[in-house]
Amino acid sequence: MARFTLPRDLYHGKGSMEILKTFKGERAMVCVGGGSMKKFGFLDKIVGYLQEAGMEVRLFEGIEPDPSVDTVMKGAAAMAEFQPDWIVAVGGGSPIDAAKAMWIKYEYPEITFEQMCVVFGIPELRKKARFCAIPSTSGTATEVTAFAVITDYEKGIKYPLADFEITPDVAIVDPDLAETMPKKLVAHTGMDAMTHAVEAYVSTANCDFTNPLAIGAIKMIQSDLVDSYNGDMDKRASMHNAQCLAGMAFSNALLGIVHSMAHKTGAIFEDYGAHIIHGAANAMYLPKVIAFNAKDPTAKARYGQIADEMKLGGANDDEKVANLIAYLRKMNDDLNIPQCIKHYGADSYPCEQGFVPEEVFLARLPEIAKNAIGDACTGSNPRQPSQEEMEKLFKCCYYDLEVDF
Ligand SMILES: NC(=O)c1ccc[n+]([C@@H]2O[C@H](COP(=O)([O-])OP(=O)(O)OC[C@H]3O[C@@H](n4cnc5c(N)ncnc54)[C@H](O)[C@@H]3O)[C@@H](O)[C@H]2O)c1
Ligand SMILES: [Zn+2]
Fold it and tell me: What atom of ligand 1 comes closest to residue 151's alpha carbon?
């Protein structure tokens, strides 16, 4: 038996945030990031709509990108004091994910972060509050997913929390919020969405319910991402929906080792001055992982199907896989994303020598590879890598080498 779970309600289209006026409750805690939602006036609108609904509103502001365990604990304490019956999280994946984790801690004050990380081990929520998510980036789709990614900065590791309990009750996919994204954010979040859809399609947990969502998302992202990056706002709106479809797919089909690798490299080089941004990590690793996974015959055939749906040509599955890899690398070029860690600058743009020194990468490689194998996303990858294979794969991702094993 398999399970397919999505939010009960999804409101979409321009101006759909207005639905907040109809919410029933007494107290809403609005969780938000560093200031973009305030700056562009979305936060005021949200607060206004919730007040129109008769609710007392309190803000939890300043949730940082790649949120920490510490922030989660602080937010949960604020919730414990305010006792909201609605949690409304707005922004990119970071504030929404943090709010999901705060929600768990608010409902179960005794729970530890380690207990939250037990995959499909989160106790029953909604005894105190319901959850509404309003995304402002077009990538993570956390508004419809059963996941939240929280970073333990002491270990330099991202932990995905996973349970359908944290699938939001309501998602509001309003393209107005995506319009203010800077180009770089469009590029990174868009390739994150592409990775979600591709990984969901080849995941060992894919099914008839997830496959059409994944393929639909892939075709929309192929058609719209680069134009959205270059400023086409109709395509930007379409990308907002596409990333959400990808999220519906991967929340139920799970992901693969592109994400395992991204989770374990995002914050591990922080002492050298930067993060490898989630979407950029995925964009660099996806072509490598496709080459690795395609050694599995079932996965190869499924990548071939993706290439067919994208109309990339190819006389056989080997050619189709090669065309898919080439297409994704071209997208990275078009979006000004480097092809490998070695060329990943501290500002995320391609450069001759990136911010991760070679000797540091090599010294940390065994540990990173071990952590990636142990990530929650590895289980549903079509091919299970050994420690040696994972290290080789990471080397290909560092130096941009061809994957032939
Ligand atoms: N829960 C999931 O299912 C899931 C899936 C993939 C990734 N993630 C996680 O989500 C996080 C990344 O989220 P993200 O990529 O959405 O970015 P983010 O939330 O980290 O935001 C990045 C930056 O963009 C700004 N920003 C957001 N929306 C904006 C807008 N509309 N206009 C202008 N600026 C805006 C933010 O203020 C922030 O500075 C990572 O921690 C990643 O691991 C979660
Ligand atoms: Zn992702």
Answer: 41
